[in-house]
Amino acid sequence: MTNVAANLPKIVRVIPRNRNIEALLLLFAIGINAFELSQVQLSILEVLNPEIFLYLLPPAFLAVILHGIMRLRASEADPMILPIALVLNGLGIAEIYRLDLGTLANGGTEVFGVKQVIWTVIAMAVAAAVIIYVPSHLFLRRYVYVSMFIGVGLLLAPMLPFIGLNINGAQLWIGVAGFTFQPGELAKIALTVFFAGYLVTRRESLAIVGRKIFGLRIPRARELGPIVTIWAASLVVLVLERDLGTSLLYFGLFIVLVYTATGRAIYVVVGLTMFITGALVASRFMGYVGGRFDSWLNPFTQANYDANGGSYQLVQGIFGMAHGGLMGTGLGGGIPHLVPLAESDFIIASLGEELGLVGMFAILVLYLLLVSRGIRIGFNHPDDFSKLLATGLSFVIALQTFIVIGGVTRVVPLTGLTTPLLAAGGSSLLANWIIIGVLLRISDSIGGGNRTVNL
């Protein structure tokens, strides 16, 4: 008996407590996704049929496989990230399936649900590959500038002749043999790696070097050079690719990482001033940006409502969310297909109508939990590169969510970004599941892989 008591601490350390917690949360997540799909079928078809398993089982099966892989390869990884991602992804599939049923009922043929399931399986398989084949994320420090060139190349790929595609007024896609992809989604990961690696080596000079003016230490011109360069690159994206959201995402990511690395608020003030100034100037000289601002400020005027690329989509989304009210119409009970691109850009408006304000708050809480776990991983990690990388990847999800939901609810001008893990789109799903995989790998390495992330 004494030997058992003496060996109890060793036995406890062997048991993967985080994975047991994750297993329970995954069962709960799969149950939520099954309930959502069942409600969709009962509301629209008024009967449950086996088609539900096509949308439920593949993501659930991959989640169980990913959980098993982490028991073997990343037993100390954060236990909440995978279940939260599965709930969000499953909710998106359920709403897209609901929109498909509405499309078919109205005589349409273009559906997205099966494609979303296929892309979900591919994306989760890639996340599993990250866990299996990347024993340590620290190898990325050797490829900081390679990541920069890859990120910039992916960012500018839609401008290439023959393969670059202009869809809905934005030059963000490439197309090869009928297959379309948005390379900017992967570019945000590569650029996050570059920013994290660059700032680790320059944090001291950015933090303590500079001249004091009125008690405030102002950085030297050459230390502001990277900020100016990224600002200029974001304006190039805005001008050439006609996408305000992507421009804001990359510049905001860099400013947040600069602040995280240095702790100096002056960089945030300077960065925000530069971006707002650039956006206002662009709104005066670029009709596309000016139209977005005008539709944002005055969406209910008849001229903006009727204009090509005007506020019609935004207003329809607002009317849909107003129709949902506090509790929503229930999945399958609304008419979200009246909003253009309800399955992608405006899936938040679709969910807002059918889940109501309460459901929207629940979705926002899930994103808040996901981002907070990522930031917690960053702050708990003893390695500076890991700290910046985890914080940057988490902020990518946070800022993209804010930009999309803020655009749909008229907090900020509408952009062409997609809601992470919810919206239809293979490139977005792939990029966000890679982020999930990297965050899990980083969290497993906290304390040399022997320390859990406390709940």
Describe this structure in words.
The chain is mostly helical and 455 residues long. The protein has one domain (9-449). It contains 16 helices and five strands. The chain has helices at residues 2-14, 17-44, 51-73, 81-105, 113-133, 144-156, 184-208, 221-240, 244-262, 266-285, 287-297, 302-306, 312-324, 347-380, 384-408, 426-444, and strands spanning 164-167, 170-176, 179-181, 211-213, 216-218. The strands form two sheets. It has a three-stranded antiparallel β-sheet with strand order 1-2-3, with no helix packed on it. Strands 4-5 form a two-stranded antiparallel sheet. Strand 2 and strand 3 (179-181) form a beta hairpin. Mean pLDDT is 83; it is low at 448-455.
The proportion of strand residues reads: under 5%
Distance N to C terminus: 32 Å
- How many helices does DSSP assign? 16
Lateral strand order in the biggest sheet: 1-2-3
Which shape, going by the Cα principal axes? globular
Radius of gyration: 23 Å
How many domains? The number is 1
The total count of strands amounts to: 5
Major β-sheet annotation: 3 strands, antiparallel
Sheet/helix structural class: mainly alpha
State the helical fraction: 55-70%
**Element pattern in H and E:** HHHHHHEEEHEEHHHHHHHHH
Query: Average pLDDT across residues?
Result: 83
